């Protein structure tokens, strides 16, 4: 994994067994079946970031139908809408759903997590400081 700007991430990171090893064609078919009207972006070297904030802040996020989680990746493989260049980084908006394996949904995009990544808790300051 790459170098992170905040020591907090290095201390709290835990290996995750999530991620897929499907081929690009299999990924395209999976997303088309599960989320037929959404753009998707495949990423590797990824982090699932669980927001570490007071319970009342987390409850406000959940009240909007979202989960207090973000996805960050050091390496975009493919973006169906061309927003993120291959090899670039991306940080998602708040999570709408996560299947616990490889499909991380936001309001506008499905992020397909390729290979093994990490999950950790992080403050919003740390999350928004990643680039």
TrEMBL record:
Pfam families: DUF6957. Residues 19-128 form the DUF6957 domain. Residues 1-21 are annotated as: Disordered. Residues 1-10 have a biased composition (Basic and acidic residues). This is DUF6957 domain-containing protein. It comes from Pseudomonas arcuscaelestis.
